[in-house]
Amino acid sequence: MISEALRTVHNVAASIGANAVKQIEVGSTLPSVPVKEDAADKPAPLSFPTGKHLIVGVPGAFTGTCNGQIPGYISRFDAFKAKGIEQISVVAVNDVFVLKAWKQSLAPEGTPVRFIADDQGAFSAALGLLFDASPVLGGARSKRYVIVANGDKVETVAVEEVAGQLTVTEASKILALL
């Protein structure tokens, strides 16, 4: 009972904290917040290439809409590269083990698309893109978004109005914007 109360307090605090941060805008600098990619004990700020890249934020690995969205970025990686995108990073508020398993399930033959664990939601919160998904996903999660950046400077921000829908962040729509 106490742990449930603490979890609720944490989720409310995370949601309030995220709402206190203004959503990232075009022209903003991407935050330098530790995330995890290869190991749970090796947090490091997300590295950004000097050229153009995409950050694709999703509410959770293995969720229905996310499982439908991310394969489009994997299968179109070469098309994105032809449009000048050097890197695609998928970011979810899950632990690194879940993200590794999700990457393996979506791309068993491998993919250059990076899967980044924002396990505490700190990166998503710093972007102003964290929301309380407690009723469905058990806690604070990332909104569904795509950021096009050049180095650490934001050039485009697309955010879904409803996290469970796929309208403005579908891979073919982002590709058409480039």
UniProtKB/TrEMBL annotation:
GO cellular component assignments: cytosol; mitochondrion; peroxisome
Domain Thioredoxin: 24-178
Keywords annotated in UniProt: Antioxidant, Oxidoreductase, Peroxidase, Redox-active center
Transmembrane segments: none
A Gene Ontology biological process term: cell redox homeostasis
Gene3D superfamilies for this protein: Glutaredoxin
Example of a GO MF term: thioredoxin peroxidase activity
UniProt keyword annotation of Oxidoreductase present: yes
Pfam family, one: Redoxin
Keyword Nucleotidyltransferase: no
Active site, UniProt feature: C66 (cysteine sulfenic acid (-soh) intermediate)
Family under the similarity heading: Belongs to the peroxiredoxin family. Prx5 subfamily.
Protein function: Thiol-specific peroxidase that catalyzes the reduction of hydrogen peroxide and organic hydroperoxides to water and alcohols, respectively. Plays a role in cell protection against oxidative stress by detoxifying peroxides.
Family matches, as PANTHER family: PEROXIREDOXIN (PTHR10430), PEROXISOMAL MEMBRANE ASSOCIATED PROTEIN 20 (PTHR10430:SF39)
Protein name per the record: Thioredoxin domain-containing protein
